[in-house]
Amino acid sequence: MKTLLRYGAIFVGALLSLLLLLTLAVVLFVDPNDYRDDILNALSEETGREFSMDGDIELGAFPCCSLRLNSVSAGNPTSWQEGAAKEQRGRESGFIRVASADLSVQLWPLLTRGELRIGQVTLDGLSVNLISRKDGSVNWEFAAAGDDRPDDVRDEEPGAPAAVLNIDGIVVRDAEVRYSDLAAGDSIHLTELDFSAGRIVFGEPTDIRLSLLADGLLPEQPVRLELDAAAVLSADGNQAELRDLAMQLDATRITGWVKLLDLQSEKLAFELKVDRLDADAYLAAESGADDTNTAAANINDERIDVPADTLRTLNVNGNINIAELIFEGAQLSDVNVTVASGSGALRLHPLTATLYGGSYAGDVRLDVRGSKPKLAVDEKLTGITLAELLADTADMENLAGFGNLRITANGRGDTVGELLKSLSGDAAFELQEGMYRGVDLWYEVRKAQALIKQTEPPPRPDNPRTELSEFSGTLKFAGGQASNQDFKATLPFMRLTGAGNINLVDAVMDYRLQARVVDTPGLVDSPDVDSPAADESADTADTVSQLKGLTIPINVKGPIDDPKVGVDLGDLLKDTVTEKARERLEDKLKKKLKLFD
């Protein structure tokens, strides 16, 4: 046994010595720079673009065998230079450049098992310039020069079996990537880009780390991104996965997983958790500092920014949970979004959230398969504190109470105006324990009565408001209008019914209401001391007595956020005169009847 071990040791030692001698021979007697031009020319012929190398190729024995490339660059496709405008060529400065690249190949696995095993790959000073031209061509697609066969023919050819991927690690330091869309005039610049990955083997998890600073995603607002995850690439290269994802997007923390289920169809699945996201910080930067009044006046001409081309190819299923979200001023919590997309149809369902003491549940669908995007919504708000919601989202402070809202509608269009004009469907609203600030309806009734009687009008309240114990109705959408034919509300001393229309395109409303005064002794005897309508209990009781049973016409007209509310004096006077004439006729009849007693 000892002899066997001794001869074995001698054999191993001899083999290692031979390997060392071979390595030294390669280093001492082979100068890779002698073949540099041949290598660069071969690469140019195969890719249809120019390769260059300013420095020498350095070959080292340890680790065996190491290779260093200095100042390597690759240009854009040579066909791009033909017929391109001078100013356009100036912006297309090249495809990729690397200050230095280091890699090593482990000779023993290659000699004994035919396995290509690469040591750590290090890239310093990497610069990538991605360009999409106005004609739709891009510079990151590689094709062999002279290969003019159709893409589908090349794709159908059987390929070689997947290589055994085995890399000890990848390190990219101080890199930058610039993306330019010459058609749209957009540009994205990634700087301070650092990337590292551990040992990379098909089917086994690899720890990766990425950090970068992005300019151009938002105007004048850079975005900082840091990412840690375990990446897995399937043996056939058709699937990939990011496990144990931990990402920091500025101040937002994101965790979860992402899977590429099929490379060919780009089928993606994910499950993500977000701690806190201020979406308005990004949306405001993206929209710019447009004047509010100008933006409001041109809202109907505003195009609906739908990435139709992207949605037509998007194949995604996943779920996002956001603990805290700020969106268009609204503050939401426990937001759950399930996303399903395929063949140009995107659906968000179930879509739930908690907000302002109540809840939201929705089903939102976007379809871009036609010539114009189609939007369909089925949404419910339940038990919402309206004062807080409207103050945050619409800068409105005149409506308070607890509200419920349901809307089921769909529309189609490229602009907001087109969408509103095509809107169809219906909605229902309900308000309890409500109040409308800015208008005291009871004061308006008393003022109208004083004008008719030609008496002194009551004093104008300092803080006008109308209490609404109940407030409800349904809407039907058609032709850019919302028709409400069953409006009803309950107020102190009055019951309101009526109908009206809301012009969604112009954002104005026109309602015709009928108010019937009812006797409410409790309110008369114990008036609300804070209510301007009950400053004088006796006067209030007298007004109620005189107007009891009378129908008072009320008009509500003007902008949705600030309508004018008032009594229709003309109709009220006509009705009052008619009522008095009827009373006089009844008196005459009674007197005549007494003559026959």
Write the layout of secondary structure elements.
Blueprint: H1 2-29, H2 36-47, E1 49-53, E2 58-60, E3 66-77, H3 86-91, E4 96-104, H4 107-113, E5 118-132, H5 151-156, E6 166-181, E7 186-197, E8 200-201, E9 206-215, E10 223-233, E11 240-249, E12 252-262, E13 267-278, H6 279-287, H7 292-297, H8 308-313, E14 315-327, E15 330-342, E16 345-355, E17 358-367, E18 374-385, H9 386-393, E19 399-412, H10 416-421, E20 424-437, H11 441-453, E21 465-478, E22 481-491, E23 494-503, E24 508-517, H12 521-525, H13 537-547, E25 551-559, E26 564-567, H14 569-595
Parallel strand pairs: 5-6, 13-14
Antiparallel strand pairs: 1-3, 2-3, 3-4, 4-5, 6-7, 6-8, 7-9, 9-10, 10-11, 11-12, 12-13, 14-15, 15-16, 16-17, 17-18, 18-19, 19-20, 20-21, 21-22, 22-23, 23-24, 24-25, 25-26
Give an overview in words.
This protein has 597 residues and is an alpha+beta fold. The protein has 14 helices and 26 strands. The protein has a 26-stranded mixed sheet that branches. A hairpin with a 2-residue loop joins strand 15 (330-342) and strand 16. The longest helix is centred in the first third of the chain and has 28 residues, at 2-29. The chain is elongated, with a radius of gyration of 38 Å. The chain starts with a helix and ends with a helix.
Which consecutive residue ranges, at least 5 long each, have pLDDT under 50?
11-19, 83-91, 144-150, 153-162, 289-297, 521-536, 588-597
Helix coverage percent: 25-40%
- Average pLDDT, rounded to a whole number, is 80
Percent of residues in beta strands?
Answer: over 45%
User: Mind describing the biggest β-sheet?
Assistant: 26 strands, mixed
